[in-house]
Amino acid sequence: MSIDKTTGFLTIERQSAGRQDVGERLRHFGEFHLRLSPNDLCRQAARCMDCGVPFCHSAGCPLSNYIPEFVDRVYRDRWREASDLLHLTNNFPEFTGRVCPALCEAACVNSIDGQPTSIRDLELEVAERAWDEGWITPRPPTVLTGRRVAIIGSGPAGLAAAQQLRRAGHKVVMFEKAERPGGILRYGIPNFKLDKSVLDRRLEQMRAEGVSFKVEVEVGQDVSVDYIRRRFNAICLTVGAMQPRDLVVPGRELDGVHYALEFLGQNNRRLFGHDCVGEPEISAAGKHVIVIGGGDTGSDCVGTALRQGALSVQQLELLPRPPEERPENNPWPQWPLILRTSSSHEEGGSRDWSVNTVRFKEQDGHVSAMECVRLEWGKGSDGRLTMTPISGSEFELQADLVLLAMGFVRPVHEGLLDSLGVEFDPRGNVRTDADMMTSIPGVFAAGDANTGSYLVVGAIAAGRRVARRIDRYLMGETSLPDLKLPPRL
């Protein structure tokens, strides 16, 4: 190899894959990230220090991906081995290579000076090379156990659990109340971040392995809970944390005030041909749009609204503006609590912090403006942040469409969970024991339903963990992998 890896972290600058120009990518809803050349990928792989203690693996990645090992395979042009290493711990590296915030890069030793190894770009390239070369094929079980498992909810946790359990030889049936499987991957993440063809090709692999998908079936309504319990030896709840945080202020009931996921989900459904008959149209076209909530979901609303042709887009956050650099109480290798600018923020609109919404104003039953006030933040005697409205700082914003992107508080209790009678923890999540089993024997829970809202990568990890525990519950033992140390080179 002509590129010296010994000193690569000193001599080679970090390079990330580029993006289409803003003017070009705003004309479509497709993915817009460009790809590095093979030589550039080799150079980026050479920046990995191959640390004795790889914090990217141990402190960063929820899946415990074998990061230095697969990166080294890229450096050595051994791409199939890199793919095999990735798939040992991650069922869907093509998803995480697109939508993961790269916790591994924050924990990379190189990130101490702000230039981590380009792990996520390398992961995505390995995954796409594997698909292009035909290395990803169905892996149906060779021996069937005769046991049946129902997975309720087809988001990333459910998909990971289903694939692992099927490969262990169980009959796996996934129940999804929406018209297509995928959960948040299909209905919550915009196409420009995750094209749905990427999801569909993985679902086809799972179908070929023998996973059965039952869509437009809401357990507890279309099918009784008693029926599911009689028909299956184990049940896994991967229903997500879909109870959104609401904003209780005057005017909340007005037309034009919607939850973010209603807006994002409807846009995604239209893109794959669903006519959305019977539901109100939620469109940003020709409107002044306000997004309340400064996280990733809010950012996704900004990018979607701009593509729909909004006149203006403003994103508001209740909390103070984050610092540009790590504060002293947020040292490496912790996730850096700093200001982040997403690709959607690059495309237009504006952001504002320390803003509280007082009420929505009405015109003919529709929202027309927002009354807001600026906040001063401090710390109470218990050390917690406190907010105080600043006298005289009141202001008004024109608003034809308001999107509430303030996160999710817990899974929806009404229907399935209440019918099952599972216990909840103090935050309203499904309570589980050390084996991820709920208060009902044989009923397990994983992902956001169990932990509260988190990341896709964390949901995949949870799906793999619960699959191992369900397999052991059904069979008395399990050969499904658990988190373990990287293999020797």
Quote the beta fraction: 15-25%
Instruction: Report the CATH architecture of the largest domain.
Output: 3-Layer(bba) Sandwich
> What structural class results from the helix and strand content?
alpha/beta
First CA to last CA: what distance? 17 Å
The CATH superfamily of the largest domain appears as FAD/NAD(P)-binding domain
Rg of Cα set: 23 Å
DSSP helix count?
19
Q: How does the major sheet shape up?
A: 5 strands, parallel
What is the general shape? globular
Q: In the CATH scheme, what's the topology name of the largest domain?
A: FAD/NAD(P)-binding domain
Q: What count of structural domains?
A: 3
Mean pLDDT: 95
As residue ranges, the low-confidence spans are: none
Helix content: 25-40%
- Read across the widest sheet, the strand sequence of neighbours is 3-2-1-4-16
Q: In CATH's first tier, which class of the largest domain applies?
A: Alpha Beta
What's the number of extended β-strand segments?
16
What does this structure look like?
Helices cover 34% and strands 16% of the residues. The protein folds into three domains: 126 residues, Alpha-helical ferredoxin (Fumarate Reductase Iron-sulfur Protein, Chain B, domain 2, Orthogonal Bundle); 162 residues, 3-Layer(bba) Sandwich (FAD/NAD(P)-binding domain), CATH 3.50.50.60; 161 residues, FAD/NAD(P)-binding domain (3-Layer(bba) Sandwich). The model has no long low-confidence stretch (mean pLDDT 95). The strands form four sheets. Strands 3-2-1-4-16 form a five-stranded parallel β-sheet, sandwiched between helices. It has a five-stranded parallel β-sheet with strand order 6-14-7-8-9. It is α/β, with parallel strands linked by helices and 489 residues long. 44% of the residues are buried. The radius of gyration is 23 Å and the shape is globular. The protein has 19 helices and 16 strands.
